[in-house]
Amino acid sequence: MRRRGFPAAFCLVLLGVLAALAPARQAVRAVGEVGMTVSDLDRSVEFFTTVLSFEKLEEEERAGEEVERLSGVFGARVRVARVRLGREVVELTQYLAPEGRPFPPDTRSNDRWFQHVAIVVRDMDRAYRHLRDHRVRHASSGPQRLPDWNAAAGGIEAFYFRDPDGHFLEIIRFPPGKGDPRWQEPGESLFLGIDHTAIVVDDTERSLAFYRDLLGFRVAGASENYGTEQEHLNSVFGARLRITALRAPEGPGIEFLEYLTPRDGRPSPPDLRANDLAHWQTTLLVEDAEGAAHRLRSARGPFVSPGVVRLSPAESGFLVRDPDGHALRFFQR
Questions:
Q1: CB-based contacts of 307: which residues, under 8 Å, 6+ apart?
Q2: H helices within 134-275, ranges in order?
Q3: Which of 131, 172, 285, 288 could be a cystine partner for 136, CB 3.0 to 4.6 Å?
Q4: pTM of the model
Q5: CA–CA distance, 177 with 330 (Å, rounded to integer)
Q6: According to CATH, what is the number of the domain 9-332?
Q7: In what order do the strands lie in the sheet with 55-63?
Q8: d(Cα 163, Cα 43) in Å, to the nearest integer?
Q9: Of 293, 299, 218, which Cα lies nearest the Cα of 254?
Q10: pLDDT tens track, the chain, 333 positions
């Protein structure tokens, strides 16, 4: 993958147009499925259903002009499967044609194409043993309990690992009083649902201008995390992070990870495409796709789709990138 910086000129314009767009701030009504591109759909479905207790909902094969225009990949033919855990859905997409590039093997947790989903577990020790029994690849050195001095995050336990393609995933356990109250409901299931998807950002204020001020997300929490536990969780020596949690009215959260130190994380490559295995996309549900596209064009957001794509009489959408290159799929359903 090329290591050039992602073009962010639109962010300078963004700050100047927010006041004019203020009457339509609530552009996003829900965060929907989080998707990733995989090399072998059958293998990935087996991993999510067998190792992580997701339920397979459906699978289909897609091709044609609508798929090409939505993804920005000419000649695209894809197999897509949706798997669910609790209320949340992950969408797995294999490009039968054209195949993209493999997941960069030297990816680190502070590179700005980094993204993961945080899968909530009932018991961290038992969940870690379960992952070890299935021989998952470690990304953290082991489960970490964040220290009590951190009022926002103290007592949270977390562990990073990798899927068969190398994508980063997280299991997380919330102590009583932290996280969504539903994570504390009694039951027998070990894996409960997805709390959030986390993305690395270069500048929190710039990202807030996009997600909060333009798209209408609310800030649900913030903390500054550092110390040996955070370093071993992220496998980044000297890691000091500014973490900001955002929420839409419905669905999992989006969490910013800004590395205050070290500042050597690499930018998202500007030629990253939807068929590359480093591609993730977060679906944002809107009432009016054309209106959302107009707001993003006014802010000069970098579109992947040439415009709003009509997928069916009841569904339309488009793909665009945020200030750091993370893909967002806007859908009107």
A1: 69, 293, 318
A2: 204-208, 228-234
A3: 131
A4: 0.92
A5: 33
A6: 3.10.180.10
A7: 55-63, 77-85, 88-97, 30-38, 280-285, 327-332, 315-321, 309-312
A8: 10
A9: 218
A10: 433 444 444 444 444 444 344 444 458 999 999 999 999 999 999 999 999 999 999 999 999 999 999 999 999 999 999 999 999 999 999 999 999 999 999 999 999 999 999 999 999 999 999 999 999 999 999 999 999 999 999 999 999 999 999 999 999 999 999 999 999 999 999 999 999 999 999 999 999 999 999 999 999 999 999 999 999 999 999 999 999 999 999 999 999 999 999 999 999 999 999 999 999 999 999 999 999 999 999 988 899 999 999 998 889 999 999 999 999 999 998
Question: Do 222 and 152 meet the contact criterion of CB atoms below 8 Å apart?
Answer: yes
Amino acid in position 213: D
All residues at 6 or more sequence positions from 22 whose CB lies less than 8 Å from its CB, including other chains: none
Q: Strand, helix or coil at 224?
A: strand
Please give the DSSP secondary-structure letter assigned to residue 315: E
